[in-house]
Amino acid sequence: MKIKTLFKTIFYAGLALTLVLYLCHLYGNYIEKTQEPITDYIYNGFEEKSNYKSSNTILITYKSKQYRLHTGDRILNKIKSGDFPKLYYSSKTDYLFFEGDYLPAGYAQATLLFSIILPTIGTLIWRKELDNDIRTM
Known about the structure:
Strands 1-2-3 form a 3-stranded antiparallel beta sheet. It has helices at 3-34, 73-80, 105-125; strands at 41-47, 56-62, 65-71, 87-90, 95-98. 45% of the residues lie in helices and 21% in strands. By secondary structure, the chain is of the alpha+beta class.
């Protein structure tokens, strides 16, 4: 495979992944706009993260099923202060999520940025060798 082909593949795969992530973000927004927040759930407490690599976990029981919602410090601090964010349920995916937390648009933006920057920098670095094989990199 040529170096040029590798960078094109990375670019197009990144664009496809960006599209999928952005569509998931739009689907989460669609659920929030078309459905009412759920209110018949039971809050079972939380587990704080044990180290910087893990996330906080909120335990919720909804329709007799236990859900573990992984959240950041922002939502956990709201819950500790008594301000519980709105919860939404997607019946198609059996997914319970806080308002605005289905799939943030930042994931799609980061993927798009990566899929543009990596091939661009690679093309600048290997500009004289783009028609060579990958093994010569």
